[in-house]
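Entry 14. Ran structure prediction on the chain below.
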Amino acid sequence: MKICFINPPFKAEYGKFSRESRSPAITKSGALYYPLWLIYAAAYCKKAGHEIYFLDAPAKQLNEEQSLALVEQNATDAMLFVYGTSTPSIKSDVAFAVEVKKRIPNSFALLVGTHPSACAEETLGYSSLIDAVAIGEFDETVLQLANTLQEGGDVASVRGLCLNGTDACKRTAPMPAMRNLDDIPFASEFIHEYLDPRDYFFAAATYPSIQIFTTRGCPFRCNFCVYPQTMHGHAFRTRSAENVVAEFEYIAKTFPDVKEVVIEDDTFTANKKRVMEICELLIARGVNKRLRWLCNARVNLDLETMVAMKKAGCRLIIPGIESGSQQILDNINKGTQVEQFSSYVANAKKAGLLIHACYMVGNCGETKETMQATLDLALKLNTDTAQFFPLIPYPGTEAYDWARKNNYIELEYDKYCLPDGTHNTVLSMPHLTAQEMLDFCNMARRKYYLRPRYILHRLRVGLTDPSDLKRSLKAFGKLKHFLFSKK
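Output, structure tokens:
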């Protein structure tokens, strides 16, 4: 059976909408993430024998009419249509799926992603032409649904769905989380056949890069993190070290222009033994001499592991530092201590790893004083790069429940992005307004990046690594308006 997977168009007139970023938007740095969850589900169904048509509209900056024309040219014989979604684009995503359904009426329309997982019945309420949404991790759900439709079976027997009904929506039995992740084909194999790596950009990575996941689920409980709370849960599941390194080898051989692998796991370093095994295999097979890589890495990462990672080709690590206030860290269930940050950064510098630090304001308990403490910490740590953003609470997270309970949040989902598709600050508190948080982040960004000390550092790094200089200049070209603007 033919299955059509679509990452729908959204605000193409303004840029490339990065739907699978943890905070979906047309980003100021020009980042565009691969639609990895759609890719994995499509690859899984292809492995099972189904024919696939895959359309990533944002990658080619296609508008609605261009996207519909491609669907009509390539997928009128598809029985199942699977649409990626996001919170800010959800109404547009539904409208696009409805238009396809009108043109191909005998097809089955399925929405997937974090938003419909958190708001299944509400999402189905937007249109009776949407047949169902998948709740949570959807690879196996899509495959079972495709098999059932092909055999003429009862879709109510498929786990992990919320089905649209005449009188009410009906949830089927939950789909268990996948345990053997090695069963899923490499994302990079699918990318090679269906996509172009040069369409995607991640500001922290050497261009062009390939993104992959090596784990699912996160054992930690940060109250704002959307994927563990809406899709993959907290049960930490891993691909084997052998499987991960085999994909690195495939990328090295198949993509001669690709310079870096972006490991998008919530916390790649959660299991030290596995990380060390991956590093040993990368070194033993010489892959570290061909590809560099980066990953999200929690601040409990030790020097020994950092040294092994650097030797294995790791160039950069991304910690979620979030705040300079211990009380804020406790309030968001971060499970880290402010005292850990300095030694983490010092160890990374000893190991020769670069750091992209993530900072966030607007969490429970935030004040102007705690925001200043965060900026002071960022300047003190002086990592290679840093980002400053207001909290964006997404449906399905504890942070969203907190914000909604206290009437701190705009409830219209289209407000999550500004009219031009860039991030919007939907959170506003009586003692700390959205504009104050936005102004602080803009000021922090300027103060951080326009320091003479920082500029000299970037030039030194660029002189020793021309590809890093090229990456920095590309990102700066996108960011310069926001750095020099006083708004």
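The chain has a mean pLDDT of 95. Will compare against last week's run tomorrow.
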